[in-house]
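User: Structure please.
Assistant: Input sequence and predicted structure:
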Amino acid sequence: MIVYEFKVKGAQIQYRRIDEAIRTAQFVRNKCLRYWMDNRGVSRAILYRYNTQLRTEFPFVESLNSHACQASVERCWSAIARFYDNCKKQVPGQKGVEPRDDDSPKGRRTKRGYPRFKKHSRSLEYKTSGWKLSEDRKRITFTDGKEIGKLKLIGSRDLNFYQLSQIKRVRLVKRADGYYCQFCIQVDVTIESTPTQKVVGIDLGLNYFIADSQGNSEPAPQFYRKAEKQLSRANRKKSKKYRKGALPQSRNYHKARNRYARKHLRVSRQREEYCKRLAYSAIQSHDLVAYEDLNVKGLVRNRHLAKSISDAGWSTFRKWLEYFGRKYGKATVAVPPHYTSQNCSNCGQVVKKSLSVRTHICSHCGYVADRDVNAALNILQRGLTTVGHTGSLYAWGDLPSSSVGESLLGYGES
């Protein structure tokens, strides 16, 4: 599955109708979630029947395409199924905080991923009906009762290479800089590549974004840190235009809010492209890539390093690394990160060092190396040991290393 993304161009009234369709899909999801809360234990089929009841009860729901309403029910059920799965696996949540069925502030804190109501949805998903592409595949027309009409697709991708039957989903996404249309196309993304007979271990860090077992390193770009001054200025301008207790806010406030959001979007895209470029280069140059299976969600709880860790984009890099590895048939191995920085890669002895010590000096064998390079060598050794002993590419033994990024696999072609 791949995803092609286009920016859509239309009239202002069409954008307002897109917003109305997104709000309707959000309404369906929230109503289904409320029905599940009031009738605990209902199945997905019952939620589908409740969706049919909503379409007969509310005319604005009936005007939305039936498959789009079903997609909203699927999103609701996905959150419910994830909550049940977390309970079965005993995933730790917030201790002592029980979920509440009401939407009060005390009930917003979640335990083990308890489903929550959507307040500001920004996407709408159609299936195989409710839309129609033009003959040249440069325009799309939405034919349901929301009367969105014909929109122009702006992008470099060519949809003429694919049959209409291969397009399984069409999404409308609202971002700070406009509206986008995504096409989920069912194709085989696997590409045969020439073996390089090379392997590499990658250590993720803050001093260097990555350092590999061959002694190469890439600096941390720190896109958020560099843009923080502009972001703070834009946020102050937005806050000055906010009128407390005023409903609705002024047009100048919404303009300032949009400028602030666009700056954040630019930083996010910079980080995404940087991670994509490094991941693609690593996969193309090696047959096996071993990397740390970091618990980023737990690491960001450190209030001293949370901003730097979030700015680094380790999870984004891992997502693209696993995607390109699967696409080009290369092995990606996630290894446990424990003691990779403390153990000596030459003799295996433990050399205790604090985070401020950036050079590894082994007192047993005299081996001296950069701290991150030493960690990358340990990661590579563990990755090769895992593959050699178990015949698997997964260091933990139960789940594939691509399980984290598998749900986002299609975004490699957007």
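The chain has a mean pLDDT of 85.
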